[in-house]
Design goal:
The chain has helices at residues 62-92, 100-127, 131-163, 173-194, 218-255, 266-280, 296-308, 310-331, and strands spanning 4-6, 31-36, 39-44, 49-51, 198-204, 209-215. The protein is mainly alpha-helical. The strands form 3 sheets. It has a two-stranded antiparallel sheet with strand order 1-4. Helix 1 runs parallel beside helix 7 (296-308), helix 1 crosses helix 8 (310-331) and helix 3 packs parallel to helix 5 (218-255). The termini are far apart. The model is unreliable at 259-264 and 321-333 (pLDDT under 50).
Length: 333
């Protein structure tokens, strides 16, 4: 509760031969914490200022959690609906030979579809109070999350190949990228599962608690998820800049050949293309980097809105971006 306690010696200390260095740094060294229900006992072998740090989940209010939950359920529900349409259309027209761009896109659709299914069913599994089932659900959702990140990178790699398609050829391309997209996340999740890092996690608000199946160790979460996405973001954002540059060059070359009356149509097309690229490359997940300090709560809302509706946006915009952008990029050659 923002309270800091100090133990005083009961006497004045002055004229020290060596100055005491004050550093704004909290450490758990020399202390052990015993938690029994709502009671916390601290045992330390030295004297200093003492404080009980708030749980990472204590900063969110019940109203904010309720609002974010409704946004998430609505967004994930709509995402599932539109992703289902995209997958259904693909399998309905499977007799038509699909291009590599479509195959990569469908794998991304599948990863996002499974992620939404896992997230929407997670809380119900947690309520069942089955430890084994909760661990399996946590591992499954983590796998879907890492797979989605990986397919963002694969999509970026595929766009890079589209730019240099006439100079780069990879044998058994779809098989190789499928292994890259689905296998590494399975290996990571298997290791974490064996280490026993999955289980039931409680999100505490000012009035109630909400449980879900997820990673119990915060260090594992930050190093594996945040760390992994950092590498993905650097690669996908670089690809985003390169692709936009190529598309802008193509746009300028084409605008010089058409009448001015047609130029008003390019604004909407540009917005759709940028939206499609952001969704396909997972750039909206970067708002997680701002979930600290004063920007923490606003970033939660922005992050939740963009990423819960990501499946809907991806299915609506990325088909256009995949077909038009790839063909336009190829057209420059």
């Amino acid at each position: 509760n923002d309270e800091v306690y100090a133990i005083e010696m009961g006497t004045e200390i002055s004229n020290l031969s060596d100055a005491i260095r004050h550093q704004p740094n909290w450490t758990t060294e020399g202390c052990s914490t015993l938690i029994k229900g709502e009671n916390i006992t601290c045992k330390c072998e030295h004297l200093t200022f003492f404080a009980i740090p708030p749980n990472e989940n204590h900063f969110i209010s019940k109203n904010d959690l309720t609002a974010l939950t409704y946004i998430t359920y609505i967004g994930c529900g709509l995402s599932l609906f539109f992703l289902s349409i995209g997958l259904f259309m693909h399998f309905l027209m499977r007799k038509v030979k699909a291009t590599d761009s479509v195959r990569v896109l469908i794998n991304l659709f599948m990863a996002l579809f499974l992620l939404n299914v896992a997230f929407l069913s997670n809380e119900y599994v947690a309520r069942a109070k089955d430890i084994t089932a909760c661990k399996v659900m946590a591992g499954f959702m983590h796998y879907c999350l890492l797979s989605s990140f990986t397919w963002f990178a694969v999509e970026a790699f595929h766009l890079c190949l589209q730019i240099a398609k006439h100079s780069v050829t990879i044998k058994h391309y779809i098989i190789k990228i499928s292994v890259v997209g689905w296998a590494p996340p399975a290996l990571v999740v298997s290791i974490i599962y064996v280490l026993g890092k999955y289980g039931e996690q409680t999100i505490t608000t000012d009035t109630s608690n909400v449980t879900m199946c997820w990673i119990l160790d915060s260090d594992v979460h930050y190093y594996v998820n945040i760390g992994y996405y950092c590498f993905i973001f650097i690669f996908t954002f670089s690809t985003f800049v390169v692709v936009l540059r190529w598309l802008s060059m193509l746009k300028l070359s084409r605008l010089n050949k058409v009448e001015k009356v047609q130029r008003s149509r390019t604004a909407t097309s540009d917005i759709t293309t940028i939206l499609g690229l952001c969704c396909m490359l997972g750039l909206t997940w970067s708002f997680a980097f701002f979930s600290f300090g004063a920007l923490r709560l606003p970033s939660y809302y922005i992050f939740t809105i963009l990423n819960s509706f990501q499946g809907e946006s991806t299915s609506a915009a990325s088909f256009k971006c995949i077909y038009l952008s790839s063909d336009q990029l190829l057209g420059m050659h």
